Amino acid sequence: MLEGNPRCGTSHQPIPADGLVNAVEGTLADFLASQIAALDTVDPALGAFARTTRDLVLAGGKRLRPTFAHWGWRGVVGFREPVDPVLPALAALELMHTFALVHDDVMDASDTRRGRPTAHRLFAAQHGSAGRLGDPDHFGETSAILVGDLCLIWADQLLAQAALTTSTLFAVRARYDRMRVEAVAGQYLDVLGEAQPHDWTVDRALLVARHKTASYTVQRPLQFGLALAGPPGADVAAIDDAYNRYGIAVGEAFQLCDDLLGVYGDPAVTGKPAGDDLRTGKPTALLMLARQLATPAQRAELIKDPAGAVIPADGSGGPLSPWAPHADDSSRPLGVASPGGTDEAVARQAEIIIETGAVARIEAMIRQRVEEAVAALHDAPIDHGARAALTDLAVTATHRPA
On the CB side of 65, how many CA atoms lie within 13 Å of its CA? Predict the structure, then answer.
């Protein structure tokens, strides 16, 4: 733990964000190279499988989970400790994240991620180009599930490489295992919500956000970082409480921002088609709130028919928020038409959501949660540099174009 007054800080400067990301990605690249080499010796096809997996892991992303874990750790140890001993643990969170993304994309039948084909689409294309027998889509989905499984195993292996005492490693594993259970629980609730959207509410959508997103994006990575700092000191309970409150607030705000981007984001920036949540009727907090605030006529347009298609709607409505697509944009930024709803119907739904006031309400909920997060850190006994970094992250992670 920090000695003396932790809010006095130190003379050391925080590691630049890009420096941390580069260090994490370097750790991942070195680890994955050794794993690929080992699988290559078994069979060339396994080496190719591992290389595709590596490319998915290193294909970009914000690296938020290692970043939050790093600042959770720095909040306790300050800036005197070198980051190298804990880098494998930080990088392991990114492998876990890849596991979650790949499986999520299979469940959602997503075509793109980070502007590139999703894992199951990549493997389906490989199957087709190689002239193999069987259904390319089934092969792609099966291979992607194995990619996710492999990443979860690799995450365990990489975590074990951190230079930690046995007692510290056990404490870190406890946080890590809780994070994994909560992520799976949140994902199941997400799937369940799509199967019974009429039973969903704003509160239940926020519960999903808390487990599927807040837990493994912010809350548990921060506490994971706290555990990385070693044997607990006198301030550990206060720090843990501050991280918990901050993590839930920022994590929920992050998901609420995602809900907005899922409808109004620019696919060229987000790397994913916009409007998919509306096409599938995913019961996000945004959609649930819109239905709650809607007039009967608006609500009818926001509910899918039993066949799964979005009910076509008449009428017009201009965008009332910066989240909305421009009315004169003929390129239709809400994405390419797909089963479950035409571009016109999805665009109309997006306009109705704005008209209900739901977008403005979600934006206010994001601001409120950011304020709560910053307040949670105000008197926390953590290094002042870490507090400043986490305060900045509360804003940048929840006010973003992708």
Answer: 26
Least confident of 124-128, 129-133, 280-284, 355-359: 280-284
Distance of CA 159 to the CA centre of its chain: 20
Q: How far apart are the first and last CA of the chain?
A: 36
Tokens encoding 133: 């027998």
- Structural domain boundaries enclosing 144: 6-277+360-396
- CATH code at position 55: 1.10.600.10
Whether residue 350 is contained in a domain is answered as: no
Contact status, residue 125 vs residue 65, Cβ threshold 8 Å: no
Closest to 344 in 3D by CA, of 300, 309, 320:
309
Domain annotation covers residue 341:
no
User: Would residue 309 count as lying in a domain?
Assistant: no
Give the count of domains, the chain. 1
Residue 15 pLDDT class (50, 70, 90 cuts) = low
More confident residue, 78 or 345: 78
Tell me what percent of the residues of the chain surpass a pLDDT of 90.
72
Pinpoint the alpha helices (H) of 196-234.
202-208, 220-228
196 class by beta-carbon count within 10 Å (0-12 exposed, 13-18 middle, 19+ buried): exposed
Question: Is 193:204 a contact under the CB 8 Å cutoff?
Answer: yes
* Six token digits for residue 108: 């959602």
Residue 310, SS3 per DSSP: strand
Domain membership flag for residue 21 = yes
Stretch 175-185: mean pLDDT: 96
pTM: 0.86
Residue 310's beta-bridge partner residues?
304
Residue closest to 349 by CA, chosen among 322, 310, 323, 321: 310
